[in-house]
Amino acid sequence: MFFCLMKFSNALIEWYHPNKRDLPWRDTKNPYFIWISEIILQQTRVQQGLGYYMRFIEAFPTIESLANAPLEKVLKCWQGLGYYTRARNIHLTAKFVVDEYNGVLPNTYAGLLKLRGIGDYTAAAIASFAFDEPVAAIDGNVYRIYARVFGIYAPIDKGVGKKIVREIATAEFDLKQPATFNQAIMDLGGQVCLPKNPLCESCPIKAICYAFKCGEVASLPVKALKTKVRDRYFYYILIRYGIFTYISQRKDKDIWHSLFEFPLIESYHALQPEEVMLTSDWVDICGNGRVEVTYISDEQKHLLSHQHLFSRFFIVEVEKPSYLLLRDYTKVLINDMEEFSTPRLIERFLAAEPAAKYFIKGVDF
DNA sequence: AAAGCGGGGTG
DNA sequence: CACCCAGCTTT
């Protein structure tokens, strides 16, 4: 048994040294950089996170610079990455650490775990990478690898399966090289033990892998939870009031918390453009004065993992802003829109030809 | 324990 | 189309 336990780590780390990915957050022991990288990489592929990481530490090279920045600047840096609560929490925690801990991040798993936005995995990752604390970091890769290697059929997205994997991960963990072991097993998951069509022939631990030996690779790991997808219909009103438009910031308990958007009419079933323009919301937003609709976009389909959004953009010139716009929305220069963090859906429309022609530059009549 | 939260890559 | 990604927080 002991022999078997040692073999896992040895084979893994022997594979890792010549095959490790060269990633910028691996060149440092700076806890701040490692923390930022781990938050960015939550539910995010390394390839997608790389550019964001480089831009983020360029914009906020120290925890103090992050703490002192306005939230809007942090969100703008996060634009397009998704799970925007991460950006809010990273900012909250930076301020907290600067105020309460003199700018020094906790140097233990237990201390890190108390911070907002840092859960079990992230605390273990930072503690092992930055401080060499011997604690197993268990992410999606690790669940998959142990479920396959040890033939765990308990769903890894439920309590029992997680508990079993945690026990195995603790037993297999290499106490002598915490950082290397955690990096190595995640690299194996990211490069070899892939969710679909894993490269088993190139795997350093295929000889001890239950799933490989029993032909169960495609059936493991087991997942129980299904995310159900909801349809929503978004109709955005891009007001043109001279060189100004109106925007608002999204509330919590919904998608895109804290991001900026145009006045929105939401429906739970599809509406034709004419129907949108007959709603009371339309009247409230556009007012009773002279209104000219200069552009109506095609329906844009925007897919989130848990919602399907069907949306349309209306560009509307108004003579004077409605009471609702004055009361509930912020007047901004159209040319300043790029300063605000917006959902990808809006970012894309603003970057497209119709917006430039009908909204940003205006219409010649 | 389960649901909610983005966006993009991949087969 | 479904599934998944260096998960966390709230309910």
Automatic annotation (TrEMBL):
Species this chain originates from: Williamwhitmania taraxaci
Job description of the protein: Adenine glycosylase active on G-A mispairs. MutY also corrects error-prone DNA synthesis past GO lesions which are due to the oxidatively damaged form of guanine: 7,8-dihydro-8-oxoguanine (8-oxo-dGTP).
Cofactors, names only: [4Fe-4S] cluster
Keyword 4Fe-4S: yes
Keywords annotated in UniProt: 4Fe-4S, DNA damage, DNA repair, Glycosidase, Hydrolase, Iron, Iron-sulfur, Metal-binding
Family annotation (InterPro entries): A/G_AdeGlyc_MutY, DNA_glycosylase, Endonuclease3_FeS-loop_motif, Endouclease-III_FeS-bd_BS, HhH-GPD_domain, HhH_base_excis_C, HhH_motif, MIG/MutY
Taxonomic lineage from the root: Bacteria, Pseudomonadati, Bacteroidota, Bacteroidia, Bacteroidales
SUPFAM superfamilies membership: DNA-glycosylase, Nudix
Gene Ontology biological process terms, A to Z: base-excision repair; mismatch repair
UniProt cross-references to SMART domains, sorted A to Z: ENDO3c, FES
Protein's UniProt name: Adenine DNA glycosylase
PANTHER family in the record: ADENINE DNA GLYCOSYLASE (PTHR42944)
Reactions that this protein is recorded to catalyse: Hydrolyzes free adenine bases from 7,8-dihydro-8-oxoguanine:adenine mismatched double-stranded DNA, leaving an apurinic site
Cofactor note: Binds 1 [4Fe-4S] cluster.
Family: Belongs to the Nth/MutY family.
Domain spans labelled HhH-GPD: 40-191
Coiled coil: none
Top EC class of this enzyme: hydrolase
GO MF term list: 4 iron, 4 sulfur cluster binding; 8-oxo-7,8-dihydroguanine DNA N-glycosylase activity; adenine/guanine mispair binding; metal ion binding; oxidized purine DNA binding; purine-specific mismatch base pair DNA N-glycosylase activity
KW Disulfide bond (keyword) present: no
E.C. code: 3.2.2.31
